[in-house]
Amino acid sequence: MSAPRVSFVSLGCPKALVDSERIVTRLRAEGYEIARKHDGADLVVVNTCGFLDSARDESLDAIGNALSENGRVIVTGCLGAEPEVIRQRHPNVLAITGPQAYESVMAAVHEAVPPKHDPLIDLLPPQGVKLTPRHYAYLKISEGCNNRCTFCIIPSLRGDLVSRPAADVLREAERLAKAGVKEIMVISQDTSAYGIDLKYAESQYGDRTVRAKFYDLAKELGDLGIWVRLHYVYPYPHVTEVIPLMAEGKILPYLDIPFQHASPAVLKNMRRPAHGEKTLERIRSWREACPDLAIRSTFIVGFPGETEKDFELLLDWLSEAKIERAGCFKYEPVKGARSNDLGLPELPQEVKESRWHRFMQRQQKVSAAQQQKKVGKRLPVIIDEANGTAGKGRTKYDAPEIDGAVHITSRRPLRAGEIVTVKIDRADAYDLYGQAV
Ligand code: SF4
């Protein structure tokens, strides 16, 4: 299964470039590949300019080229505000949308070439494919993965790690911030491995050079003055370096680390990166350096050969690690995954089911206790949805789509994208409730 490929043409002024950037960021995050040529791509998106006659001609020519070289074309941007002009010359374009219409462009792309959502390999949750509000964006820093976890087929589908040069990533992040994005979610298959393939090469960003390295990138992103959240970080020793950036408030005190299990035997069978690391000790030292660090993770229960003892070890780990959020999946033998051929016994479905329930129960208690600690505090909350004086938002400790929400009432009208201080009145295992102050 290869990723759908979209070729992108960006014409026009810096504002149009920001639009292009947002659309490309979104496409990348959803698993589309950006093709270098029209030929061979599944689709072409042309972001047009309609300001001057020459720009209109250039736009119409670019659409014509895309149609002859590819045939499947979506038009967006300023000239898209005059669909009749485009239809007259090029009746066969698939869809036309106007400037800053990210949502409609993405809807047209989804219709023409549906995103291949596969819960096993995607970085975004299924509901993440819905359109991102304009105040947050996913920033993909690399593609592929050098690890070979036995349950995972990403490396065989997407290949080894290919990191984007640091300057490239930073320019995209800067443009997003300028376009009004208030929160960036850094994503990749293995964020802490960023730059290994480039041998941490330096690239020119503004007046300085920046290394393609996890810490350097996090530090630079932290200087943008917006919320920066790190996803898919593995507990390699060098992760400790970014904790001070969190303690200083440069990047959000949040780590999404897919631990997958706690039993050394299971982790070994999974061939997890950093499986030998003493994760409990590591978490303890991170929390010492940054007391309000929130950790979210995902786990797999019922991996072949997982014994009751292995599983109990995982439950104990949960009680001790006290991570804020944990998702849990029942192991599934994915076609092509090496875990099917390890010669380990597959567990009966009812065992997987019951372990899943036991896991959820245990973690729910932990999460609820962590949530209770926030009651009475005044926390900055980013508003995701506003409806007059009521709204829904998130604290620094919660990522969109996957973590909990804060339900807010306010004396003045709320706006999506603003960051307000909320006094937390109560909590349940997932969500918080409070008033804007
Ligand atoms: S780290 Fe493991 S699970 Fe994650 S993409 Fe790489 S091989 Fe797959």
TrEMBL record:
Q: Does the keyword Membrane apply?
A: no
E.C. numbers: 2.8.4.4
Q: Which reaction does it catalyse?
A: L-aspartate(89)-[ribosomal protein uS12]-hydrogen + (sulfur carrier)-SH + AH2 + 2 S-adenosyl-L-methionine = 3-methylsulfanyl-L-aspartate(89)-[ribosomal protein uS12]-hydrogen + (sulfur carrier)-H + 5'-deoxyadenosine + L-methionine + A + S-adenosyl-L-homocysteine + 2 H(+)
Its annotated compartments are: Cytoplasm
Residue intervals of the Radical SAM core domain = 131-369
Q: Which annotated residues bind [4Fe-4S] cluster 1?
A: 13, 49, 78
- Annotated [4Fe-4S] cluster 2 binding lies at 145, 149, 152
Gene Ontology terms describing biological process: tRNA modification
Q: Which cofactor does it need?
A: [4Fe-4S] cluster
Domain spans labelled TRAM: 372-437
Domain MTTase N-terminal: where?
4-114
**What is written in the cofactor note of this entry?**
Binds 2 [4Fe-4S] clusters. One cluster is coordinated with 3 cysteines and an exchangeable S-adenosyl-L-methionine.
Record InterPro entries: Elp3/MiaA/NifB-like_rSAM (IPR006638), Methylthiotransferase (IPR005839), Methylthiotransferase_CS (IPR020612), Methylthiotransferase_N (IPR013848), Methylthiotransferase_N_sf (IPR038135), NA-bd_OB-fold (IPR012340), Ribosomal_uS12_MeSTrfase_RimO (IPR005840), rSAM (IPR007197)
Record's keyword annotation contains S-adenosyl-L-methionine: yes
Q: Which SMART domains match?
A: Elp3
Q: Which family does it belong to?
A: Belongs to the methylthiotransferase family. RimO subfamily.
Q: What does this protein do?
A: Catalyzes the methylthiolation of an aspartic acid residue of ribosomal protein uS12.
NCBIfam families in the record: 30S ribosomal protein S12 methylthiotransferase RimO, MiaB/RimO family radical SAM methylthiotransferase
Instruction: Give the protein name, as stated in the record.
Output: Ribosomal protein uS12 methylthiotransferase RimO
